[in-house]
Fold:
Amino acid sequence: MQPFWWFKKPAVIPPVGEQIENGGFEDQFDYWEYGINAYIDTFYKRSGNRSLGLTGYSEPENFAWAKQTLGTPVPVAYVSTFKLYGHADWYPAQEKKLLITIGYTDDSSTEVTFTFYETYVWHECDLKPYLSSGKTIKSIRIETLSLLDISVDDVSLIGTG
Ligand SMILES: [Ca+2]
Structure:
């Protein structure tokens, strides 16, 4: 038997301020899970002294990734800002692609791919337009689909409060 309050919907507490921990990677991999070929980049950084480096490889099983599960899931309706910045090295005739997977509490997800045509600049990748309304965000996963290294910095999810 579940207690009587089992069927009550928990009240949503509007998130206030930044919901991503260590989004600038200044504390290295704190709060992030990561796979093979992910590293902390101290050469290219948009802010501070560090960024996330994702080594490019040709084999999908070697594609580098990092993932953060939010301490408290954030309903899409309460998202003010959700973005990150990506940076790619110069190399001719190679696509530089970043795959972002936004995970929701119902285990569905939204995938967004960003292609960087300009190199040596930080591209703003705005995730907010791609969010599924009515869902609640629980995680973000960042993966390179590139043969080349991509750096990521300043991952930010700000609640409306
Ligand atoms: Ca940084």
User: Anything to note?
Assistant: The chain has one domain: 34-160. Residues 24-26, 45, 47-48, 50-51, 153 surround calcium ion (CB under 6 Å).
